[in-house]
Amino acid sequence: MTAKSAAAAARATVYGYPRQGQHRELKKAIEGYWKGRVSADALRQTAADLRRSHWQQLADAGIHEVPSGDFSYYDHVLDTSVMVGAVPERHRAAVGAYALDGYFAMARGTQDVAPLEMTKWFDTNYHYLVPELGPDTVFTADSGKQVAELQEAVALGHAARPVLVGPVSYLLLAKPAPGVAADFEPLTLLDRLLPVYAEILADLRAAGAEWVQLDEPALVQDRTPAELNAAARAYRELGSATDRPKLLVASYFGRLGDALPVLAKAPVEGLAVDFTESGAANLRDLAAAGGLPGKRLVAGVVNGRNVWINDYGKSLSTLGTLLGLADHVDVSASCSLLHVPLDATAERDIDPQIARWLAFARQKTEEIAVLARGLARGTGSIAAELAANRADLASRAGSALTHDPAVRARTAAVTDADGRRSQPYAERTAAQRAHLGLPLLPTTTIGSFPQTTELRTARADLRAGRIDTAGYEERIKDEIREVLSFQEKAGIDVLVHGEPERNDMVQYFAEQLTGYLATQHGWVQSYGTRYVRPPVLAGDISRPEPMTVRWTRYAQSLTERPVKGMLTGPVTMLAWSFVRDDQPLGDTARQVALALRDEVNDLETAGTSVIQVDEPALRETLPLRAAEHTAYLDWATEAFRLTTSGVRPDTQIHTHMCYAEFGDIVQAIDALDADVISLEAARSHMQVARELAEHGYPREAGPGVYDIHSPRVPSAEEAAGLLRKGLEAIPAERLWVNPDCGLKTRGWPETRASLENLVAAAREIRAELAAEGS
């Protein structure tokens, strides 16, 4: 096919779409099912209605080929585990392999059965359920979900392409099952898994699939020759099967590098490549590999992870270059639109001119369709769209919101000394212990307490004008008093005020900082039924006035025990926002750090002796290629130190991280120079404590003993067992006792019971240590 005919045939497609619905119908239905208010049939009907609506939205926007199978009740990697029969025996035996209850038990656990481990999906804030595999794993095909959803789409008149997690990425994302040797490599199961994929592909072909998409995002990471050979073998075998649909192998989030020629040579009919993240590199690599003669190329030229409008001129230039490198070029987003909100037109509180800079999922599908039309019919066919796009891009570039001279001058004046504490840790810790007077194995929580129905109602009443600010603040004070009272009675040593006034740990601060835009309906799935509204980081950042001091001071007035000040760190403020794309991330991080530094200093002045600056996204934002790690970690750790280094030696700085693989950033954790770090550790059985010990981490640490992402109430014996494991790696004088993460999503009954057990476990271990020392 010539470049001209390839352009004329260009189509629009996407890899995936947000699942929740305009009003988060899926979340409400699932949580209703968990509480017994919604039947299984009603839940399935809600899911079917949402799929129907999403497919129609895509078709109405001009998308020619819609995805199927990307919909999930909880997580697409969990769906893949079910599809290939990788259901742990504890879940299979407890509630049955494929029932809804069994599915949710794998995701959330039950009182008697632990869930699968959960961690971040590459460098996004989406969490997936980690497959548990071992040398005895037996895979079996269950294509029922994928076939049924394909048939739904076809019956509604849509050209649909089933989307599956590819076999190589699935195995690379897996971990050894409990009881399996830690050095077991799940990729060794590839030859056992491939026949199952071949069977599923045959089922999909029989159900009418012309194409099937196999997602292999793990191939944009650094991969060994053995892993690349495994990818080559996988697609040689699947591509050689006779009873299969056409195969589209998709990658996203970065540069394919050495994996690109492997996939280009494979006997598959198409590749989908990200031309936004490391797009120029992928373009060069594709040309160097000789292009994709005779194959389909799905070009991801619209950013599926951020919310800024596309630059049509730039994208059309890229697409024009690609026409000479493939037999057929289609237009898409760079990845699934799962990572952006649904519809920007729902945002009524954002200035209309600024709103024109934003593109959520629906707007991105329209952009994709415009680009496909321009590629197929020429730029004259989209002249009006091009002119409007140029005007909107110019409006953003010239806006006063994006450039504040005072902020830029302050940032430019930062010196190395601003990022260093006045005394080394060994001297600070002595001052802090004398000042705080805490017991061995001090207990604390991570920050938030349950956000009750009453709190949410109060917030809604305030917005609707049913109560005034004074009435709302009295409700907040009531909640703080209750949270403080419970912690004191439970015996917790370092208290928190519970954050009842906060809607979200990033949005709360974004709403009080200049340069941020907050959304009202910009929900994005973080995990399961947990949705967040990432704010939009649109311009230069500053703090007009204190943000947390008032409520922290009020909480401290209610108790003699120390109350932690609670802030979200600069890296997480970036990672869990939609960041500006017109300046380096490090520059933006420095602006946020200076704003937060002012807050830290004001908290100390107000009498706060313990200040926690959360950085759960430090690992998440780590670039996928090792060559880029050093530059990122340099500015990320500098931003944290800039936030925290202006305090006295006897002020104790905490940080918190959760649900990520920490082993490869232990050096960076050390470089933060925090006095205490709390980390997720319950599901991974204290793995992070061992990693800290292997590094020689010299400061205090609290590896979590209570998994807060499950409704289970851990017993005191279970928590004590985890503490004993922690003590094998961290000396008692440096070990804290805390949950994995904040308690915002939990209910009060389980929270009370779990924290009481946590305190009991700490007391039990203290008694054991005292007996050993006597």
Low-confidence segments: none
Termini gap: 84 Å
**How helical, in percent, are the residues?**
40-55%
Percent of residues in beta strands? 5-15%
The order of strands across the largest sheet is: 1-5-7-8-9-10-11
Q: What is the strand tally?
A: 20
Helix/strand-derived category reads alpha/beta
Radius of gyration: 26 Å
> Total helix count?
29
Task: Name its key features.
single chain, 774 residues, alpha/beta, five-stranded parallel beta sheet, 20 strands, 44% helix, globular
Walk me through the structure:
The structure is a single chain. The chain is 44% helix and 12% strand. The strands form 6 sheets. It has a 7-stranded parallel β-sheet with strand order 1-5-7-8-9-10-11. The chain is globular, with a radius of gyration of 26 Å. The chain is an alpha/beta fold. It is built from 29 helices and 20 strands.
